[in-house]
Amino acid sequence: MAETTEPHFHGHRQRLRERVLKNPQETESYELLELLLGYVLKRCDTKPLAKELLNHFGSLWGILNAHPAELESIKGFGESSKIFFILLRELVARYFMEPIKEKKSVGLDDIAMLARCRLDGLSHEEIWVALLDNNNRLLSFDKVHTGNTDSAFCSPKMIAEIAITKKATALVLVHNHPGGVTKASWADRETTLHIQKVMNLMGIRLLDHLIIADGKVISLADNHLLAENTILFNDNDKSIL
Fold first, then answer.
1. pTM above the 0.70 mark?
2. Residue from 120, 57, 117, 49 nearest 80 by CA
3. Which of 31, 42, 176, 234 is the Cys-Cys partner for 212 at CB 3.0 to 4.6 Å?
4. What are phi and psi of 166, to 5 degrees?
């Protein structure tokens, strides 16, 4: 019988694991990605795929924020890899979200972080709402509606039902611009003002509307696009990256 030999990349992968265990900070991004892919694609050399993903999407951030259909367009990236990356993104999102949810009081930066974890990189619009109590404690961060590539419908009734159920006294509205437009549209402002009026009648304060676009967070309140309202966050809490 012919003697079987391990593929050449097995030894390389083991040496790479040892390097990561010794000092992960010195590992190149493509090498980290190569090792991660190795847990899914155990019988092939994952270095070419790792380099192609980085070349196509520009960074690890770009890869994690890519739509699954975009990832599958890369040769060698199949169903198992897609599921793995969906799980990886969800783990990263929860890693950042869980400490915020445990805080006794949150600021606008915290909500912006939650928004980016959920909305950065989506190819369609989604509307979310952060619900708070009188002590600025985050009660929940909920998806209200899933739209298409350039719009999403949101009625005050949708938000009111969630706010009443969670016994919220204040909220921050959040949605994304998949096309990367980093300013509020006329429709964004008019819809927000309408929601704000309805919430005020119910004794619920709409504190801000954040738009996630091209890795940035835009605040309608900071851009003076909301009606005057009671200020919940102080100046130190309102800085948004």
1. yes
2. 49
3. 176
4. -90, 0
